[in-house]
Amino acid sequence: MKQIFHTSLEVPILSLIFGIILILGLYDFGRIFLTKTRLNTTINKYSSNNYQNILVSTSLILFIFYPLFLYFSFTILIFKIFTYLIFAIGIFFILNNFIKLKYLLNFYLSLLMNKKNYQIEIVIIFLLLSGFILLSFAPVTNADSLDYHLYTAKHILNTGTYPVYLTNFHSSRLTGSGELMVVMGLIVGSEQFNSILQVTGLISLIGILKKNKASNILWIVILSSPVLIFFASSIKPQLLSICASSLIFSIIIKKLFYENKIHKIENIREIIFCIFILFINTQVKFSFFLSSFLLTTAIVYYAFKKNIMIETLLVSLLLYLIIILPSIIWKYENFGGNFFELFVSPFSTEMYGTGGFKNYLLSLNKHRFSWILFPTDIRLITQSLGLGTFLTLFLFLKINRKNIFAILLISSFVTFSYLFGQFTARFFLEPFFWMVLFIALQQNKFQLNFLLRSLIIVQALVILSLSFYGVATLTKGVISKNMRDDVLSNHANGYLLYKWADDKLKVLNYSGSVIASERSIGFLNRIVIPPEHLYFTDLTKPEAKPYIDELKLLNPKYFILSNDTDVFGVYKNCLGKEVFFGKNIDKLAVRNPLLESSVYHSVKIFEINTNNFPECFRKGNSEYNK
Q1: CB-CB contact of 197 with 234 (8 Å)
Q2: By the 8 A CB rule, do 199 and 14 touch?
Q3: Cβ contacts of 596 within 8 Å, gap of 6 or more
C-alpha cells in the first residue's frame, strides 16, 4: 500500500483545519440539497432548521458511492473529485459567512436554548457539547479505529476496493459504507474528520430537542451518557447513524400520535425519507438492521392505519433492492457461503473460522448487565449508558397507547440484541436516545425529583471532567508534530511497535505484505496480515486450506512479533533469520489513565518463507478455533 498522509503528518493542525472545512462543506451541501428538493419543509416539521444538514448529506453520499465502490474500482477517482468539491463548498461557506466575526459564535450558541432559568444547566450543556467537539479534534488513538476502520479506508484509498482478505476478519467482514467517510477525510489529509462527523450527530439530536422545547435536564441526560466519550474520540462510523435512527424514531412518534391531517403525497414523501435513512444505516454497520427493522415495522403499521400500505411496501421493496441487495450479492460473490444467511448476518458462517469469529462477537459482555447504569469497574466508566437509564421508569408511570408503543419498541430492541447481537453499551445507545426523545416529545416541561436531578448533574460534571481530561491529553496532539508523536506513543496501542517496524522495513527496502502481532494495522502502509487469523482458525487443520492458500498468495517475507504475544506459536518452526531486534519497544498504550501500563516489550522482525507452509505449522491454541 502506498504512503498516505495519515502517518506522515508534518503539520498536524492542518489535518484538523481540513477536517473542519470538509464538515462545513457537508453542512452547506446538505442545506443546498434539502432546499432544492424542498425536503427542508418536511424535516423542519420535526427538527429546528438546518440541524439535519450534515446527517442528510452524509446519507446521500453513502447512497450514491457505496454500491459503486463495491463493483467499480475507478470510483475512487470520482470520489476524490467529489471530495474536493465538498471541500471547495466548505471554503466558500467560510468566505461567505465567517468573515462576520460573530457568525460562528452565534451559530454555536444557537444550539442552546435561550432561557433565563437554570443558567447552571445551560452552562453544563454548553461545556458538555464543547468537550465532545474538542475531543473529536484529537489524533486517532481508538483501538478499533486504528485496526479495521482506518486500515479499510487506507486500502480503499490506495486500491479503489474494499479488502477481501480471508485472514483479515474485521476489515473484510465487518466494514461497510461508513468507512467511505474516513476515506473522504484521508483524501484531504484529515485523520480526525470522521470523529468530528460522528459528533455532529449530537447536533441532529439537539435540533429535535430544540424543536420540541425539551427540558434542560433531558439535554443533560443525553449529553452526559458516559459512552459518548468513547464515540467522540473514535472514527468508528456509528454515532451519526444512531442519531439518524433517533431522528426517524421521533418522526414516527409524531406521525403516529401527534400528527394533524396531512396530504397523502406529503405523507408518502415523509415515509420515503424515513425508510431511505433507515436502509442507509444498515449499510454503515450491520447492527443497524435491528433498529431499522423495528422502525420500518412501525412505519408499515402507520401506513396501514393511513391506508397507504401498498405504496409503503412498494417503496420499501424498491429501496431494499437499490440500497441493501447490492452489498449482499457482493459479499456472496467475494466470500461465498450461504447466500440466504447474508440477509440476516454480516457474513456467512459456512466457511471454517467464521463461526468462531461470530461466537467471539456475540459473547462480548453477555454476563454483564451493570453497564446499563454504571460499570462494576470504575476504570470502564465510558462503557456504560449512565444514570439516565432510570428515566425508563417514567414510561411505566402512565399506561397508555403511546407509552406501550415506546415500551414495545425498546424492549424488543433489548431482547433481540441480547439474544443475537453484541451486548455492550454502545449498541444500546439507540434505545436510550429513543427513550429520552419520547419523553421530550410528550412533556416539554419535564422535571425530575431533586435526588435524581442531582445525580444526573453530578454524572454530567464527572463526564465533563473526563472529556476535558481527554482534550488535555489527546487533542494537544494537533498542535505540533512532536506533540502528536507524544500522544500516539502514550495513548495509541501499537504505534511504537509499527513506527519502529516501518523504519526497519524501509532499511530493508521492502514494500510487500507482512504478518504482524498487533491489531493496530492502520499504522502500516502496506498489506498486513493481522493476528486474528490465528484466533479463529487452526492452520494445521485441513479446513484451513483457503487461509493457507491466501497466505501463500500474499507471500509475506517478514514477521513482526512482540514478546507480549504468544498466539503466534503456530509459526515458530516457520521462522527464518531474526533480522532486527528492538529492546523495550512495545507497550500497552491506552487512553484511560487507570489502565496505563509501564511494562515494555521487545520486538523482533523475522524472515518467513511461505513455501514451507503448511508443513512447518505447529498446533494452534485459541478458544475460538476449536
Answers
A1: no
A2: no
A3: 588, 590
